[in-house]
Protein: Acetoin utilization protein AcuC
Organism: Sphaerisporangium flaviroseum
Amino acid sequence: MSRSVRVVWDDELVSYDFGPGHPLAPVRVELTMELARELGVLDKVELVGCAPASDDELALVHKRDYIEAVKRVSADGEPDLSCGLGTPDNPAFPGVHEASALVAGATLTAARAVWAGEAEHALNVAGGLHHAMPGTASGFCVYNDPAVGIAWMLSQGARRIAYVDVDVHHGDGVQAMFYDDPRVLTISLHESPRTLFPGTGFPSETGAEGTAVNVALPAGCGDTGWLRAFHAVVPPLLRAFEPEVLVTQHGCDSHALDPLAHLMLSLDGQRQAYAALHALAHETAGGRWLATGGGGYELVQVVPRAWSHLIAEAAGEPVDPGTPTPQNWREFVRGRTGEVPPLTMTDGRSPEFQDFSGGYDPGDAIDRAIMATRKAIFPFHGLDPQP
Protein backbone atom coordinates (compact mmCIF):
# COMPACT_ATOMS: atom_id res chain seq x y z
CA MET A 1 0.00 0.00 0.00
CA SER A 2 2.86 2.37 0.85
CA ARG A 3 5.66 3.06 -1.61
CA SER A 4 8.19 4.97 0.48
CA VAL A 5 8.20 5.97 4.13
CA ARG A 6 10.55 8.22 6.07
CA VAL A 7 10.86 8.39 9.83
CA VAL A 8 12.63 11.50 11.07
CA TRP A 9 14.82 10.99 14.12
CA ASP A 10 17.70 12.63 15.91
CA ASP A 11 18.89 11.52 19.35
CA GLU A 12 18.83 15.18 20.40
CA LEU A 13 15.03 15.17 20.15
CA VAL A 14 15.01 13.83 23.71
CA SER A 15 16.42 17.20 24.84
CA TYR A 16 12.82 18.50 24.76
CA ASP A 17 12.68 17.84 28.50
CA PHE A 18 10.76 19.84 31.11
CA GLY A 19 12.54 18.05 33.96
CA PRO A 20 11.94 15.27 36.50
CA GLY A 21 8.33 14.56 37.32
CA HIS A 22 6.89 16.34 34.30
CA PRO A 23 4.32 14.17 32.45
CA LEU A 24 5.89 14.77 29.02
CA ALA A 25 8.95 12.68 29.76
CA PRO A 26 11.21 12.25 26.70
CA VAL A 27 11.89 8.63 27.63
CA ARG A 28 8.56 7.81 25.94
CA VAL A 29 9.97 8.56 22.48
CA GLU A 30 13.25 6.88 23.36
CA LEU A 31 11.36 3.70 24.29
CA THR A 32 9.26 4.00 21.13
CA MET A 33 12.23 4.15 18.80
CA GLU A 34 13.97 1.30 20.62
CA LEU A 35 10.85 -0.90 20.40
CA ALA A 36 10.35 -0.12 16.71
CA ARG A 37 14.02 -0.95 16.12
CA GLU A 38 13.87 -4.26 18.02
CA LEU A 39 10.66 -5.26 16.22
CA GLY A 40 12.33 -4.67 12.86
CA VAL A 41 9.88 -1.91 12.01
CA LEU A 42 12.65 0.62 11.33
CA ASP A 43 14.15 -1.78 8.78
CA LYS A 44 11.04 -1.14 6.64
CA VAL A 45 11.48 2.65 6.51
CA GLU A 46 14.12 5.23 5.65
CA LEU A 47 15.47 6.78 8.85
CA VAL A 48 16.60 10.38 8.28
CA GLY A 49 17.97 13.17 10.44
CA CYS A 50 16.87 16.78 10.72
CA ALA A 51 17.99 20.31 11.51
CA PRO A 52 16.28 22.84 13.79
CA ALA A 53 13.61 25.04 12.24
CA SER A 54 14.92 28.51 11.47
CA ASP A 55 13.41 31.65 12.95
CA ASP A 56 11.80 32.43 9.59
CA GLU A 57 10.23 28.97 9.47
CA LEU A 58 8.92 29.27 13.04
CA ALA A 59 7.57 32.72 12.16
CA LEU A 60 5.25 31.14 9.60
CA VAL A 61 2.91 30.63 12.57
CA HIS A 62 4.60 32.21 15.63
CA LYS A 63 5.07 35.87 16.48
CA ARG A 64 8.64 37.17 16.16
CA ASP A 65 8.63 38.67 19.64
CA TYR A 66 7.53 35.31 21.06
CA ILE A 67 10.42 33.52 19.36
CA GLU A 68 12.81 36.12 20.80
CA ALA A 69 11.31 35.66 24.28
CA VAL A 70 11.77 31.89 24.07
CA LYS A 71 15.39 32.46 23.05
CA ARG A 72 15.96 34.65 26.11
CA VAL A 73 14.54 31.97 28.38
CA SER A 74 16.66 29.42 26.54
CA ALA A 75 19.84 31.34 27.26
CA ASP A 76 19.50 31.41 31.04
CA GLY A 77 16.57 29.18 31.97
CA GLU A 78 14.81 32.04 33.76
CA PRO A 79 10.98 31.99 33.58
CA ASP A 80 9.07 34.48 31.45
CA LEU A 81 5.37 34.15 32.17
CA SER A 82 4.57 36.65 29.41
CA CYS A 83 5.38 33.91 26.89
CA GLY A 84 4.01 31.06 28.99
CA LEU A 85 7.35 29.63 30.13
CA GLY A 86 7.81 29.11 33.86
CA THR A 87 4.46 27.50 34.68
CA PRO A 88 3.96 23.95 36.02
CA ASP A 89 2.79 22.87 32.55
CA ASN A 90 5.61 24.63 30.74
CA PRO A 91 8.66 24.95 32.99
CA ALA A 92 11.51 27.13 31.75
CA PHE A 93 14.79 25.34 31.06
CA PRO A 94 18.11 26.24 29.43
CA GLY A 95 18.08 25.25 25.78
CA VAL A 96 14.30 25.30 25.43
CA HIS A 97 14.45 27.19 22.13
CA GLU A 98 16.95 24.82 20.56
CA ALA A 99 15.07 21.72 21.73
CA SER A 100 11.72 23.07 20.55
CA ALA A 101 13.09 24.25 17.20
CA LEU A 102 14.53 20.77 16.60
CA VAL A 103 11.11 19.18 17.12
CA ALA A 104 9.64 21.66 14.63
CA GLY A 105 12.54 21.01 12.26
CA ALA A 106 11.83 17.28 12.37
CA THR A 107 8.22 17.83 11.32
CA LEU A 108 9.40 20.26 8.62
CA THR A 109 11.77 17.60 7.31
CA ALA A 110 8.83 15.21 7.09
CA ALA A 111 6.66 17.86 5.38
CA ARG A 112 9.35 18.59 2.79
CA ALA A 113 9.73 14.91 1.95
CA VAL A 114 5.99 14.44 1.44
CA TRP A 115 5.46 17.70 -0.47
CA ALA A 116 8.42 17.08 -2.79
CA GLY A 117 7.36 13.50 -3.45
CA GLU A 118 10.58 12.12 -1.96
CA ALA A 119 8.46 9.97 0.37
CA GLU A 120 4.83 9.02 0.25
CA HIS A 121 4.52 9.03 4.04
CA ALA A 122 6.73 10.68 6.66
CA LEU A 123 6.57 10.60 10.45
CA ASN A 124 7.94 12.50 13.43
CA VAL A 125 6.88 10.67 16.59
CA ALA A 126 8.57 13.34 18.75
CA GLY A 127 6.25 15.98 17.27
CA GLY A 128 2.58 16.78 17.57
CA LEU A 129 2.95 19.74 19.96
CA HIS A 130 -0.49 21.03 19.02
CA HIS A 131 -1.29 23.38 21.92
CA ALA A 132 1.37 26.06 21.28
CA MET A 133 -0.22 29.36 20.28
CA PRO A 134 1.20 32.11 18.04
CA GLY A 135 2.51 34.09 21.01
CA THR A 136 2.59 31.74 23.98
CA ALA A 137 3.55 28.26 25.14
CA SER A 138 0.65 26.10 26.30
CA GLY A 139 -0.07 22.56 27.38
CA PHE A 140 3.55 21.26 27.31
CA CYS A 141 4.02 22.78 23.84
CA VAL A 142 6.45 25.60 22.94
CA TYR A 143 6.50 25.63 19.13
CA ASN A 144 3.58 24.18 17.20
CA ASP A 145 5.32 21.78 14.84
CA PRO A 146 2.22 20.47 12.99
CA ALA A 147 1.18 24.05 12.24
CA VAL A 148 4.71 24.95 11.07
CA GLY A 149 4.66 21.98 8.69
CA ILE A 150 1.22 22.89 7.35
CA ALA A 151 2.12 26.57 6.92
CA TRP A 152 5.32 25.66 5.10
CA MET A 153 3.42 23.50 2.61
CA LEU A 154 0.93 26.34 2.08
CA SER A 155 3.87 28.64 1.36
CA GLN A 156 4.98 26.18 -1.32
CA GLY A 157 1.62 26.35 -3.08
CA ALA A 158 -0.57 23.77 -1.34
CA ARG A 159 -4.22 24.66 -1.82
CA ARG A 160 -5.97 22.19 0.51
CA ILE A 161 -4.49 20.46 3.55
CA ALA A 162 -6.47 18.36 6.01
CA TYR A 163 -5.33 17.95 9.61
CA VAL A 164 -6.86 15.18 11.75
CA ASP A 165 -6.03 15.18 15.46
CA VAL A 166 -6.89 12.09 17.53
CA ASP A 167 -5.22 13.26 20.76
CA VAL A 168 -7.53 13.17 23.79
CA HIS A 169 -7.04 16.94 24.12
CA HIS A 170 -8.46 19.44 21.65
CA GLY A 171 -5.95 20.49 18.98
CA ASP A 172 -6.54 24.11 19.89
CA GLY A 173 -3.28 25.64 18.69
CA VAL A 174 -3.49 24.22 15.19
CA GLN A 175 -7.16 25.18 14.97
CA ALA A 176 -6.40 28.73 16.11
CA MET A 177 -3.61 29.22 13.59
CA PHE A 178 -5.80 28.23 10.63
CA TYR A 179 -9.26 29.11 11.94
CA ASP A 180 -9.86 31.71 9.24
CA ASP A 181 -8.02 29.90 6.43
CA PRO A 182 -10.36 27.80 4.27
CA ARG A 183 -7.35 26.03 2.73
CA VAL A 184 -6.90 24.04 5.94
CA LEU A 185 -9.48 21.62 7.30
CA THR A 186 -8.81 20.86 10.98
CA ILE A 187 -10.63 17.92 12.55
CA SER A 188 -10.16 17.15 16.24
CA LEU A 189 -11.69 14.22 18.13
CA HIS A 190 -11.21 14.78 21.84
CA GLU A 191 -12.66 14.48 25.30
CA SER A 192 -15.31 17.09 25.99
CA PRO A 193 -13.91 20.51 26.92
CA ARG A 194 -16.31 20.43 29.88
CA THR A 195 -14.09 17.84 31.57
CA LEU A 196 -10.59 18.33 30.14
CA PHE A 197 -7.94 20.90 29.21
CA PRO A 198 -7.88 23.16 27.23
CA GLY A 199 -11.59 23.83 27.61
CA THR A 200 -12.14 24.46 23.90
CA GLY A 201 -13.24 22.33 20.98
CA PHE A 202 -17.02 22.63 21.00
CA PRO A 203 -18.89 21.75 17.79
CA SER A 204 -19.92 25.39 17.46
CA GLU A 205 -16.29 26.33 16.69
CA THR A 206 -16.61 25.98 12.91
CA GLY A 207 -13.94 28.29 11.48
CA ALA A 208 -13.81 29.59 7.92
CA GLU A 209 -16.45 27.93 5.76
CA GLY A 210 -16.86 25.03 8.19
CA THR A 211 -13.19 24.08 8.11
CA ALA A 212 -12.79 23.76 11.90
CA VAL A 213 -14.38 20.49 12.99
CA ASN A 214 -14.70 19.37 16.60
CA VAL A 215 -16.02 16.08 17.92
CA ALA A 216 -16.31 16.48 21.71
CA LEU A 217 -16.73 13.02 23.24
CA PRO A 218 -17.99 12.28 26.75
CA ALA A 219 -15.63 11.04 29.45
CA GLY A 220 -15.64 7.26 29.58
CA CYS A 221 -15.96 6.83 25.81
CA GLY A 222 -14.23 3.62 24.74
CA ASP A 223 -13.25 1.92 21.50
CA THR A 224 -16.77 1.23 20.22
CA GLY A 225 -18.08 4.77 20.65
CA TRP A 226 -14.85 6.47 19.57
CA LEU A 227 -14.59 4.46 16.35
CA ARG A 228 -18.28 5.08 15.63
CA ALA A 229 -17.71 8.82 16.00
CA PHE A 230 -14.55 8.78 13.89
CA HIS A 231 -16.20 6.98 10.99
CA ALA A 232 -19.34 9.11 11.21
CA VAL A 233 -17.36 12.34 10.75
CA VAL A 234 -13.85 11.98 9.37
CA PRO A 235 -14.18 9.93 6.15
CA PRO A 236 -17.11 11.90 4.65
CA LEU A 237 -15.42 15.23 5.35
CA LEU A 238 -12.06 14.17 3.92
CA ARG A 239 -13.80 12.85 0.80
CA ALA A 240 -15.67 16.11 0.38
CA PHE A 241 -12.61 18.32 1.05
CA GLU A 242 -10.22 16.38 -1.22
CA PRO A 243 -6.96 17.45 0.47
CA GLU A 244 -3.64 17.41 -1.32
CA VAL A 245 -1.93 16.26 1.88
CA LEU A 246 -3.24 14.60 5.02
CA VAL A 247 -1.53 15.65 8.26
CA THR A 248 -2.35 13.66 11.39
CA GLN A 249 -1.55 14.02 15.08
CA HIS A 250 -1.55 10.76 17.04
CA GLY A 251 -1.62 11.58 20.72
CA CYS A 252 -2.28 8.22 22.40
CA ASP A 253 -3.56 9.72 25.65
CA SER A 254 -7.06 8.52 24.74
CA HIS A 255 -5.94 5.17 26.21
CA ALA A 256 -7.70 3.90 29.34
CA LEU A 257 -4.40 3.84 31.26
CA ASP A 258 -3.47 7.45 30.56
CA PRO A 259 -3.22 9.35 33.86
CA LEU A 260 -4.26 12.77 32.54
CA ALA A 261 -7.57 12.09 30.77
CA HIS A 262 -10.78 10.09 30.91
CA LEU A 263 -11.38 8.26 27.63
CA MET A 264 -11.14 4.47 27.66
CA LEU A 265 -9.62 3.37 24.36
CA SER A 266 -7.41 0.31 24.05
CA LEU A 267 -4.23 -0.04 22.07
CA ASP A 268 -6.24 -2.15 19.64
CA GLY A 269 -8.80 0.59 19.08
CA GLN A 270 -6.01 3.08 18.47
CA ARG A 271 -4.46 0.70 15.94
CA GLN A 272 -7.75 0.68 14.03
CA ALA A 273 -7.66 4.48 13.88
CA TYR A 274 -4.13 4.41 12.43
CA ALA A 275 -5.20 1.94 9.76
CA ALA A 276 -8.26 4.02 8.88
CA LEU A 277 -6.21 7.22 8.52
CA HIS A 278 -3.63 5.41 6.40
CA ALA A 279 -6.36 4.19 4.05
CA LEU A 280 -7.92 7.67 3.93
CA ALA A 281 -4.55 9.21 3.01
CA HIS A 282 -4.46 6.98 -0.04
CA GLU A 283 -8.14 7.45 -0.87
CA THR A 284 -8.40 11.22 -0.44
CA ALA A 285 -4.88 12.70 -0.58
CA GLY A 286 -3.10 10.67 -3.22
CA GLY A 287 -1.17 8.85 -0.49
CA ARG A 288 0.54 12.00 0.82
CA TRP A 289 0.58 11.53 4.58
CA LEU A 290 2.50 13.40 7.29
CA ALA A 291 2.05 11.92 10.78
CA THR A 292 3.27 13.09 14.17
CA GLY A 293 3.12 11.84 17.73
CA GLY A 294 1.46 13.97 20.38
CA GLY A 295 0.26 13.43 23.93
CA GLY A 296 0.56 10.18 25.82
CA TYR A 297 1.59 9.94 29.45
CA GLU A 298 1.55 6.22 30.20
CA LEU A 299 5.20 6.12 29.24
CA VAL A 300 5.91 2.37 29.23
CA GLN A 301 2.66 0.45 28.74
CA VAL A 302 1.09 2.62 26.03
CA VAL A 303 3.21 5.13 24.12
CA PRO A 304 6.00 2.86 22.79
CA ARG A 305 3.59 0.19 21.58
CA ALA A 306 1.08 2.66 20.11
CA TRP A 307 3.62 4.58 18.05
CA SER A 308 5.51 1.46 16.98
CA HIS A 309 2.18 0.29 15.57
CA LEU A 310 1.79 3.69 13.87
CA ILE A 311 5.19 3.46 12.17
CA ALA A 312 4.51 -0.13 11.11
CA GLU A 313 1.10 0.84 9.71
CA ALA A 314 2.64 3.68 7.71
CA ALA A 315 5.28 1.28 6.39
CA GLY A 316 2.51 -0.95 5.07
CA GLU A 317 3.57 -3.89 7.24
CA PRO A 318 1.48 -3.77 10.41
CA VAL A 319 2.76 -5.65 13.45
CA ASP A 320 0.56 -8.58 14.43
CA PRO A 321 -0.99 -7.53 17.74
CA GLY A 322 -0.14 -10.90 19.27
CA THR A 323 3.58 -10.34 18.67
CA PRO A 324 5.63 -10.58 21.88
CA THR A 325 7.64 -7.52 22.80
CA PRO A 326 11.32 -8.33 22.19
CA GLN A 327 13.33 -9.49 25.20
CA ASN A 328 16.07 -6.94 24.51
CA TRP A 329 13.48 -4.17 24.66
CA ARG A 330 12.05 -5.47 27.93
CA GLU A 331 15.51 -5.36 29.47
CA PHE A 332 16.04 -1.86 28.07
CA VAL A 333 12.76 -0.71 29.67
CA ARG A 334 13.71 -2.14 33.06
CA GLY A 335 17.12 -0.49 32.89
CA ARG A 336 15.77 2.93 31.84
CA THR A 337 12.63 3.09 33.99
CA GLY A 338 12.63 0.28 36.54
CA GLU A 339 9.13 -0.63 35.38
CA VAL A 340 7.72 -3.94 34.23
CA PRO A 341 7.28 -3.81 30.43
CA PRO A 342 4.27 -5.13 28.52
CA LEU A 343 4.70 -8.64 27.12
CA THR A 344 2.82 -8.33 23.83
CA MET A 345 1.78 -5.70 21.30
CA THR A 346 -1.92 -5.87 22.18
CA ASP A 347 -4.37 -5.14 24.97
CA GLY A 348 -6.27 -8.25 23.90
CA ARG A 349 -9.24 -6.38 22.46
CA SER A 350 -11.01 -6.79 19.10
CA PRO A 351 -13.03 -3.56 18.84
CA GLU A 352 -16.18 -3.54 16.77
CA PHE A 353 -18.64 -0.70 16.23
CA GLN A 354 -21.94 -0.03 14.53
CA ASP A 355 -21.73 2.36 11.60
CA PHE A 356 -23.63 5.59 12.19
CA SER A 357 -25.49 5.17 8.90
CA GLY A 358 -27.52 2.47 10.62
CA GLY A 359 -29.34 4.99 12.78
CA TYR A 360 -29.05 7.67 15.45
CA ASP A 361 -29.93 7.18 19.13
CA PRO A 362 -30.77 10.56 20.73
CA GLY A 363 -30.54 8.94 24.15
CA ASP A 364 -26.88 8.06 23.65
CA ALA A 365 -24.29 10.69 24.64
CA ILE A 366 -21.86 9.66 21.91
CA ASP A 367 -24.54 9.82 19.23
CA ARG A 368 -25.53 13.26 20.49
CA ALA A 369 -21.90 14.38 20.18
CA ILE A 370 -21.72 13.00 16.64
CA MET A 371 -24.93 14.76 15.60
CA ALA A 372 -23.84 18.06 17.14
CA THR A 373 -20.74 18.00 14.94
CA ARG A 374 -22.51 16.84 11.81
CA LYS A 375 -25.23 19.48 12.18
CA ALA A 376 -22.67 22.24 12.70
CA ILE A 377 -20.33 21.22 9.86
CA PHE A 378 -21.81 18.94 7.22
CA PRO A 379 -24.02 21.57 5.47
CA PHE A 380 -20.89 23.67 4.75
CA HIS A 381 -19.58 20.73 2.70
CA GLY A 382 -22.80 19.77 0.95
CA LEU A 383 -23.31 16.74 3.20
CA ASP A 384 -26.49 15.61 4.92
CA PRO A 385 -26.10 15.63 8.72
CA GLN A 386 -28.71 12.91 9.11
CA PRO A 387 -27.53 9.28 9.12
